[in-house]
Write a structure and sequence with these properties.
With 720 residues, the protein is of the alpha+beta class. The chain has four domains: 8-122 and 196-338, HUPs (Rossmann fold), CATH 3.40.50.620; 124-191, Methionyl-trna Synthetase, domain 2, CATH 2.170.220; 404-554, Isoleucyl-tRNA Synthetase, Domain 1 (Orthogonal Bundle), CATH 1.10.730; 617-719, Nucleic acid-binding proteins (OB fold (Dihydrolipoamide Acetyltransferase, E2P)). 40% of the residues lie in helices and 17% in strands. Helix 1 (24-43) links the parallel strand 1 (8-13) and strand 2. Helix 13 packs across helix 18 (545-554). The protein is globular and about 90 Å long.
Length: 720
């Protein structure tokens, strides 16, 4: 496949929803990866715009406003300002951070809607929706509470139970109540504009599977993550359904008022939010004189969306379908969605306050912004869910940042001042020393710097492929090389007897630090600034500096000339005391709503305790696992993830509803041997009673596999 070389890049991060602060899961999901990519592109002298902004519409905003007793505008103003401050302090380098309540965004969204309406891309459909007769308004999903059909929690919302995590529809709730008046709502017909996604299936499949759009190769599908393409394929293969593009709300972007039936209708938040990328670019263009259309409509441009895996279909199916329906826009070049970051053995939960809030981290651990950036990238959930623990945070800081990078830089700087009064030594080019490949292997400065070139080039290649963890490792390998040269030669021991060798060693190490000062920039920008100050080199402006480093190394030119006077050394990082880490762990557990004795559900059942996820042996003994065979498998209508299975477990045949439709074709499952949790309490999913659970396993790419018993085991055999 021919390589496409874009002339310019438009990079987006998911618009954070302005009804609460940012936590580390947000950073790991969409913002750090995008920032690494953008800073790298700038260092390679690429034309790139990095846009984002606050998502400020939807029912959840009005609910938060009502809870706090202030207006929706005051809510979004509060969190928009918090987001701006947090992102800036964390070094997220947006070219613009916009907001969807801006006049320009409303105009852009309405114009987009008008175009689709004029082109006949919408249909009008009537549906039944809950209506509050006392408040005299239709209710969004979050305006409805009731009893969860799964766990019986009485405070479940119309879209999700926050106690057990089950996705719901308002009609699934038992005894639904309006959150506005506490009245029982009634179902009433309402009419909305729908996007008929099913009409877009054919071209979406070709674009996703082959990278071809309108007859031209636009991307290489091999560069897309497996779990992204897998989720999209599951949606398409399951049959795309019409999607409502408007809602009955009082907060959001108005449906153009000249359209019949627009009164009281707002654009669906998942229509206006991605258009926020476009309006942000338009505002940036107005501020800087750039042509925004080149980034969104020129076939030589590449659009890259950084998001979490819960937003894959919106950015890979629904938004592309909207852009296609409009007709003037190009398709995304890639949607490198990350999986989820777990915290101390559990899923991050904002409702339970089981989270590390970024603004609080910045207050509690000042000056350690880059430590968090490094740990987040080091453990980034690129292909599958990953985990953050405070102990691991401490270990990575102490062993890698302090023990490797900071140790190398400090030793070189201190020795340069000690041996040469801070001046970079001139050396004899034929001088050899023990190189990084081993203490018995002679090397030269030029050879070591070519190895640095190779590692920088490999880092470059990994970033282009969205392998940021791998790129980070390559960067740290450069520091490891420097430490090895010092370790193998011990210049402090031989400086008097072999001063010529020591000059070569120290010059080489300073060149490596200079290369590192550029290489660390995408990952740890604040550390890069401090390294440049110590080297007494110009600050990095992200205008092609990495490209210059690669060119100079390839041509055999040194990055720092002999005789250059470096600055004073300082410690880049310091060890984090146990008491600091313990305080954070204690704070997390104290804040966890589910861990407090008063946090009980209205049903009288205590919420799960916030511990490390361990169970007692006696708990496991209660679980009954038996062998079974799948007899039938069909997709549950109007769902994307659910399959209805008929499973023979020897003593009986059971119906089991399983959320594995994104990973398996129903026909491929028939006849498969499986393991079934037999004594799991029945629960209803989409009106189907599920009696049991299949055991599955997830690989490194996020793909599920069926856990099967050994061949020939009788059905109903007990497993422990």
């Amino acid at each position: 496949m021919a390589v496409r070389l874009p002339k310019r890049y438009l990079v987006t991060s998911a618009l954070p929803y302005a009804n609460g602060p940012l936590h580390i899961g947000h950073l790991a999901g969409a913002y750090l990866s995008a920032d690494v990519f953008v800073r790298f592109l700038r260092l390679m002298k690429k034309d790139v715009l990095f846009v984002c902004g606050s998502d400020e519409h939807g029912a959840a905003i009005t609910l938060r406003a009502a809870k706090e007793g202030i207006s929706p505008q005051e809510i979004v103003d509060k969190y928009h300002g918090m987001f701006e401050d947090t992102f800036k302090k964390m070094g997220i380098s947006f070219d613009i951070y916009h907001r969807t309540t801006s006049e320009l965004h409303h105009e852009t969204s309405q114009d987009f809607f008008r175009t689709l309406e004029k082109k006949g891309q919408f249909t009008r459909q009537e549906s039944m929706q809950y209506y509050d007769e006392k408040a005299q308004q239709f209710l969004a999903d979050r305006y409805i509470k009731g009893t969860c059909p799964n766990c019986k929690y009485e405070g479940a919302y119309g879209d999700q139970c926050e106690n057990c995590g089950t996705s719901l529809s308002p009609t699934d709730l038992i005894n639904p109540k309006s959150t506005l008046t506490d009245e029982t709502p009634v179902l009433r017909p309402t009419t909305h504009w729908y996007l008929p996604l099913e009409k877009h299936s054919e071209w979406l499949s070709k674009w996703l599977d082959e990278g071809i759009y309108k007859g031209k190769q636009m991307h290489d599908p091999k560069e897309w993550k497996n779990h992204v393409l897998g989720q999209c394929k599951s949606w398409i293969d399951g049959g795309l359904q019409p999607r409502a593009m408007t809602r009955d709300l009082d907060w959001g972007v108005d449906v153009p008022q000249e359209l019949e039936g627009s009164l009281g209708k707002k654009l669906y938040v998942w229509l206006d939010a991605p258009i926020g990328y476009i309006s942000a670019t338009k505002q940036l263009a107005a501020d800087t004189g750039k042509d925004w259309k080149k980034y969104w409509q020129d076939k030589d441009s590449a659009i890259v969306h950084f998001i979490g895996k819960d937003n894959i279909v919106f950015h890979s199916i629904i938004f592309p379908a909207l852009l296609h329906a409009h007709g003037d826009y190009i398709m995304p070049d890639n949607v490198p969605a990350n999986a989820f970051l777990n915290l101390e053995g559990q899923k991050i939960s904002t409702s339970r306050n089981w989270a590390v809030w970024v603004h609080e981290y910045l207050e509690d651990l000042p000056g350690k912004e880059d430590v968090l950036r490094y740990v987040m990238i080091r453990n980034m959930p690129e292909q599958r869910d990953s985990e953050f623990t405070w102990r691991n945070f401490q270990e990575i800081n102490d062993n890698e940042l302090v023990g490797n990078l900071a140790n190398f830089v400090n030793r070189v700087m201190v020795l340069t001042h000690k041996f040469y009064n801070g001046k970079v030594p001139k050396f004899e080019e034929e001088q050899d020393f023990a190189g990084s490949h081993g203490p018995l292997e002679d090397s030269f400065v030029e050879a070591e710097l070519m190895d640095v070139f190779d590692m920088l080039f490999e880092m470059r290649e990994k970033i282009y492929l969205y392998d940021f963890r791998g790129a980070l490792q390559q960067m740290m390998n450069i520091s490891t090389v420097g430490n090895q040269i010092l370790q193998f030669n011990e210049p402090w021991k031989i400086v008097e007897n072999d001063p010529h060798k020591v000059k070569a060693i120290m010059n080489c190490c300073i060149q490596i630090i200079a290369a590192l000062s550029v290489a660390v920039r995408p990952f740890m920008p604040f550390t890069s600034d401090r390294m440049r100050t110590m080297l007494n080199l110009p600050p990095i402006e992200e205008k092609g500096e990495l490209l210059k480093v690669l060119d100079r190394l390839a041509e055999g030119e040194y990055l720092v000339k002999p005789g250059h006077l470096i600055g004073q050394p300082e410690h880049l990082f310091s060890r984090i005391p146990d008491e600091v880490i313990q305080a954070q762990i204690a704070k997390l557990k104290e804040n966890d709503v589910a861990a407090t004795p008063t946090a009980e559900t209205k049903s009288g059942k205590a919420a799960p305790a916030a511990i490390d996820g361990s169970i007692q042996y006696e708990d496991f003994e209660k679980v009954s696992i038996v062998t079974g065979k799948i007899l039938e498998a069909i997709k549950v209508e109007k769902t994307d993830k659910l399959l209805k299975l008929l499973v023979d477990i020897g003593t009986e045949q059971r119906t089991i509803v399983s959320g594995i439709a994104e990973h398996f074709e129903p026909s491929a499952l028939v006849g498969k041997d499986v393991l079934v949790v037999k004594n799991l309490a029945p629960r209803k999913l989409k009106g189907i009673e599920s009696k049991g659970m299949l055991l599955t396993a997830e690989d490194a790419d996020g793909k599920l596999g069926i856990v099967a018993p050994p061949a020939g085991w009788p059905l109903g055999s007990k497993v422990k």
